[in-house]
Amino acid sequence: MGFCSPVCKILRRGKYFVLLLLSLSVLAWIATFSGETVKSLQVSSATTRTLVKDRDSLRDKVNSPAPDRLKTPPPKVQCPQESPLLQGALKLSFESSLKLKDVEIENKGVTEGEYEPPDCKSRQSVAILIPHRNRERHLLYLLHHLHPFLQRQQLHYAIYVIQQAGDATFNRAKLLNVGYLEALKDYSWECFIFHDVDLVPENDYNLYVCDKQPKHLVVGRNATGYKLRYKGYFGGVTAMTKDQFLQVNGFSNTYWGWGGEDDDLRIRVELQKMKIMRPPADVARYTMVFHKRDSGNEINKDRMRLLGRTPQVWKKDGLNSCSYKTLSIERLPLYLNVTVDIGKPQS
């Protein structure tokens, strides 16, 4: 017992010392671990910032515009002043066996009546307006020849056929006003060709483009021995820019029946100090597809009286007073068929 007591005391003191050393070691280890953790967190934070920065950089690269060579094909060059595809005077054929499907197959580049040259940019965009009622055969012959004719001229064009609904007296002029207004809802056409359905151009050097002045394209036709019908004739097929037609306030809306409306337009042009241009007589030639006068398109016996008042009424009778109701718009393969109710003549 005497011996054990001092030894036990020494052992107890040693145990306390060991525990103290272990405690200090644990504290030292905790301190070391904490420092490494802070460093690790700092590194991790820096890495995260780098990744975020890299991700933003990648997003910017992805969203940045692609080089032009990848984004769009190079722009088309402008079509030449004179198309290399022109063939001049051609012999026209009007086969009774011709079907609309045949014409569609021949003009696969035409979509909903519209065509653009595949390899160059057209110098003008042209809307062809054809007033129509019950002339399906004439329309077929015209489409058969007119589509390739216009394509050889390397034009961006669309053909609009404006159908007069009902059985009221025919009004060519008002239908052409409607065609102009409706076509501009599709596209800002630069040039308008006002085209009778029974006149087929014979020579593709007779260019369907507009000029600085209004242009009359029918110098001669087979029915008149290829001579101008009369000195001031401005009918059949005429070409005016969008602005020229607007400046004269379009056609009069008051000519119901055959005759007078083209002379009225000529007077409007002359009142604006414009000069009518014509291509050479040997180029501006047409074949007229013969037919009897349509029922509902009798000669307008009031036309001379109406012509006498044109200088007084042109500003308020025309595009700005053209009222009509659009019944349907059919986007057919070869043309846009616009059917309208234009009312009836006032009694």
Automatic annotation (TrEMBL):
Cofactor(s) annotated in UniProt: Mn(2+)
SUPFAM superfamilies listed in its UniProt record: Nucleotide-diphospho-sugar transferases
Topology versus the membrane: Single-pass type II membrane protein
Domain Galactosyltransferase C-terminal: 215-292
Its EC number(s): 2.4.1.-
Catalytic activity: N-acetyl-D-glucosamine + UDP-alpha-D-galactose = beta-D-galactosyl-(1->4)-N-acetyl-D-glucosamine + UDP + H(+)
GO MF annotation list: metal ion binding; N-acetyllactosamine synthase activity
Pfam family, one: Glyco_transf_7C
Domain Galactosyltransferase N-terminal per the UniProt entry, residue ranges: 79-211
InterPro entries linked to this entry: Galactosyl_T, Galactosyl_T_C, Galactosyl_T_N, Nucleotide-diphossugar_trans
GO biological process terms held by the UniProt record: carbohydrate metabolic process
Region: Disordered, residue numbers: 56-78
Keywords, ordered alphabetically: Disulfide bond, Glycoprotein, Glycosyltransferase, Golgi apparatus, Manganese, Membrane, Metal-binding, Signal-anchor, Transferase, Transmembrane, Transmembrane helix
Annotated metabolic or biological route of this protein: Protein modification; protein glycosylation
Predominant subcellular localization, coarse grouping: Golgi
Compartments where found: Golgi apparatus membrane
GO terms for cellular component: Golgi cisterna membrane; Golgi membrane
Name of the top EC class for this enzyme: transferase
Family indicated by similarity: Belongs to the glycosyltransferase 7 family.
PANTHER family to which the protein is assigned, alphabetical: BETA-1,4-GALACTOSYLTRANSFERASE, BETA-1,4-GALACTOSYLTRANSFERASE 4
The protein's role, per its UniProt record: Responsible for the synthesis of complex-type N-linked oligosaccharides in many glycoproteins as well as the carbohydrate moieties of glycolipids.
Name of the protein in question: Beta-1,4-galactosyltransferase
Protein source organism: Scomber scombrus
